[in-house]
Write a structure and sequence with these properties.
- The protein is α/β, with parallel strands linked by helices and about 350 residues long.
- Helix content is about 30%, strand content about 25%.
- The chain contains twelve helices and 17 strands.
- The strands form four sheets. Strands 3, 4, 5, 8, 9, 16 and 17 form a seven-stranded mixed sheet that branches. A six-stranded parallel sheet has the order 12-11-10-13-14-15, with helices on both faces.
- The two termini are about 15 Å apart.
- It binds nicotinamide-adenine-dinucleotide and zinc ion (2 copies).
- One zinc ion (ZN) binds next to helix 2.
């Protein structure tokens, strides 16, 4: 089958690879209809996250049709339309029972193979899904495939970071980053009742998308942006910052924008090993800082019904729909934010 594999930094190729096989009776093989490129894929692509084996199939956002099921799979059968969270989970360990499915004791991230261990990704014609009964979800009636795809990662991550920041009715919120995660976070914050939702980025077309979802788009590179947010929040700063970037600059900006006693919730994946604010600064601000990988499988119970309700034009963030063979070029566009590239869907079985 065809798949996008890793050869090195900024060096991906779409080529013939072996078919995935059922390796465990709880596995399912899914024919991938839609797969997307995520901001998280950019970390190994750019080399800011290291360790990935050459030959690893990229990609962790996918929706498709069940092709083959292992002998112990009870909930799915060939032909079912399914969507997966970006990590697998067993459904029965202590963490799964707490709803921290991202930290399931046997969790694997699609598209991460290191030293021969791990799970290949979904930017391919077919993908193997371990612990399929607990991992996969059926695409609900009424949901559009392209939007249901987002429940597996960016929409659920937006809901997750909103939950981490304890956004509630009347909250003021600054979302850092108007990439797919930040845009979805702005929707989730409004759904949670936030009154003021600022989305900060420097890319005009991304800020325009944020405005389309009802947020106030602001260029974070302008000095007036911070003044405006302070002005409109009684000089205090926002109750919560949803950091959807993953850089020291964004962490520092989050710290500067949050009020005393507020919360910075970080969905951005960080690779630095020090904080952009000091312990004394955190103390002096009575700061709460929360972070981590989204338990997408748990959040999908909320976000898939939201998708099926069709109240938001989530597909408006999709800038490119391309065949799998154009995946390597699509990574370049997404990496360099060329051609208004915001979200790329790849269609392996088109
Ligand atoms: N926690 C999780 O489980 C989880 C899940 C999915 C994605 N992520 C992470 O979320 C982050 C965002 O993902 P994405 O797909 O939206 O990525 P993206 O790269 O498309 O978007 C990031 C945006 O941040 C903007 N930006 C850069 N520096 C900024 C700053 N200082 N202030 C404000 N905006 C700034 C960029 O212009 C860009 O538009 C990535 O780090 C990704 O790895 C985490
Ligand atoms: Zn992702
Ligand atoms: Zn588990």
């Amino acid at each position: 089958m065809q798949a996008i594999t890793f050869r090195g930094i900024r060096d991906l190729v779409c080529s013939e690879v072996p078919e995935p096989q059922l390796l465990d009776p709880r596995d399912v093989i899914v024919a991938v209809h839609l797969t997307a490129i995520c901001g998280s894929d950019l970390h190994p692509y750019r080399g800011s996250e290291t360790g990935l084996d050459v030959g690893t199939i990229f990609g962790h956002e996918f929706l498709g049709e069940v092709l083959e099921v292992g002998a112990e799979v009870a909930n799915f059968a060939a032909g079912d339309r399914v969507v997966a969270p970006f990590t697998t989970n067993c459904g029965s360990c202590w963490y799964c029972e707490q709803g921290l499915t991202a930290r399931c004791e046997s969790s694997q991230l699609f598209g991460w193979v290191q030293d021969g261990q791990g799970l290949h990704g979904a930017q391919a014609e077919r993908v193997r899904v371990p612990h399929a009964d607990a991992t996969l979800m059926r695409v609900p009636h009424g949901a559009r495939d392209e939007e249901a795809l987002f429940a597996g990662d960016v929409l659920s991550t937006g809901a997750f970071v909103t939950e981490l920041a304890e956004v509630r009715a009347g909250s003021s919120v600054a979302v850092l980053g108007a990439g797919p995660v930040g845009l979805m976070a702005s929707i989730a914050a409004r759904e949670a009742g936030a009154q003021l939702v600022y989305v900060l980025d420097s890319v005009p077309e991304r800020l325009a998308l944020a405005e389309g979802f009802g947020a106030t788009g602001l260029d974070y590179t302008l000095a007036t942006t911070r003044e405006r947010i302070l002005d409109e929040t009684g000089g205090r700063g926002v109750d919560g910052v949803l950091e959807c970037v993953g850089s020291p600059g964004a962490t520092r900006l989050a710290f500067d924008l949050v009020r005393f006693g507020g919360t910075v919730a970080a969905a951005g994946v960080h690779t630095e090993d020090t904080f952009a604010f000091s312990p004394v600064e955190a103390y002096d601000k009575n700061l709460t800082y929360r972070a981590g990988r989204c338990s997408a499988r748990r959040l999908m119970e909320k976000t898939l019904p939201l998708v099926a309700g069709r109240r938001f034009d989530l597909a408006s963030i999709i800038s490119h729909r391309l065949p799998l063979s154009e995946g390597p070029d699509a990574y370049r566009l997404f990496d360099e934010r060329q051609e208004g590239c915001t979200k790329v869907l790849l269609l392996p079985n088109a």
